[in-house]
Amino acid sequence: MRALFWLLDTVISLYIWALIIGAVLSLLLAFNVLDTRNRFVWTVADFFYRVTEPALRPIRRRMPNLGGVDLSPLVLILLLSALRILLAEIQVGLMRGGAGW
User: Fold this and answer.
1) Model confidence at 43: pLDDT above 60
2) Which residue ranges run through the membrane (predicted)?
3) What is the count of structural domains for the chain?
């Protein structure tokens, strides 16, 4: 059971890093620091877009327009962090014998 919680925590942590890298790449592309004509840059940016966009799209639809500032990665990171805390609490509760769960 502990391995399952470890795996879920690791996957959530990796996805949080993917969100951070995707947001940084997006900023670098927006300010023309990176050139999308470079095949490697385009491939990496496309990968992170495809990985993160399905989770970010529903959040973007529900958030108000903030004048070009996209806070959806921050919202998703906060939600995933809360999920990690919840999973840790569930794991501790199960290790104590299920008291309170």
Assistant:
1) yes
2) 12-34, 66-87
3) 1
